[in-house]
Amino acid sequence: MDFNASLELVKKTLTTKYADFAGRAGRTEFWTFIVFSIVVNVLASVIFGMIGLGIVATVVSLALVVPSVAVTVRRLHDRDMTGWLALVGLIPLLGALWLLYTCYFEGTEGANQFGEQPAE
Question: How far apart are CA 108 and CA 117, in angstroms?
């Protein structure tokens, strides 16, 4: 996948699917957004922390919470799992590791109870 296609996936997640908890998200959509989110959070923390505007970094982090949870729920749907399992990520360390491990694997082939298989 090229850089422009990755940017398009991130743009789609941030605009049309910002708080969309229905449907399915493929591995590419999920991991592209997670990497983008980590990079943006780190850059915002470093840049705004150095100039004494840590509150801006906090606002950036909070703005990415909803789409991060939404893409995680849709990724779980792709695996034919309930989105409520995203709450496991609230368990310190082990919950987040389990969630990342679960989201690594391919989704179910064809349609499942949450919709058609994502294109990517």
Answer: 7
CA atoms within 13 A of residue 66's CA, in its CB half-sphere: 10
Q: Any idea which residue has 């983008």 for tokens?
A: 36
Domain that holds residue 76: 3-104
Q: What does the pLDDT average to over 19-23?
A: 95
Q: Over the stretch 58-89, which tens digit does the pLDDT of each residue have?
A: 999 999 999 999 999 999 999 999 999 999 99
Instruction: Name the domain count of the chain.
Output: 1
By the 8 A CB rule, do 17 and 118 touch?
A: no
Asked if pLDDT for residue 1 goes beyond 80, the answer is no
